[in-house]
Amino acid sequence: MHMNQMTRLQRFTARFARADRGATAIEFAMVSLPMAVLIFGVLELAMALLVATTLESATESASRMIRTGEFQTSGASTKNDFKALVCARMSWLSAKCATDLYVDVRTFNDFNSLAGSGPQNGAAFNPAATCFATGQPTDIVLARAYFQWTLFTPLLSNVMEDMGSGSGKRLLSFATAFRNEPYNTNLPSGAAC
Hints:
The chain is an alpha+beta fold. It has seven helices and three strands. The termini are far apart.
């Protein structure tokens, strides 16, 4: 009887090894999860790049108004005025812009000192350390914009540096440096940072 049971087990094992019904379902189950994570990761990265490109375009356009003196001579002079200017150019992100955008505008005596001014780190980002000084005609200005973007794909937030331990937010930033044009000089001098 023991021998008969072994033969049955061997026949079952051989039949199981030859069977291919359901193989496609098992292969799909093994491949679908990594493939879904990969697809969502690519989509998440594409969204982050789209947000970064939007931030770049909006900051560059708003900074041009500082460069030409249009911002300073229009009566707008605060950090919130400049932030509103950048947000107005980020139309599809306008709902998040008011809470997740930070601007930093500084003046420098020369381009060498500007080169030593690095951006803030995402993990140690401090909104209170931002500054706002548009400068006078022919001053050298560095304008930066920081935008918090929430990552949804769990593995991607492990790969990209986030804004603190496990926050799931990525700090996207853009900077542009320029020398102000020689616009109307009959303006009060702006604050320095």
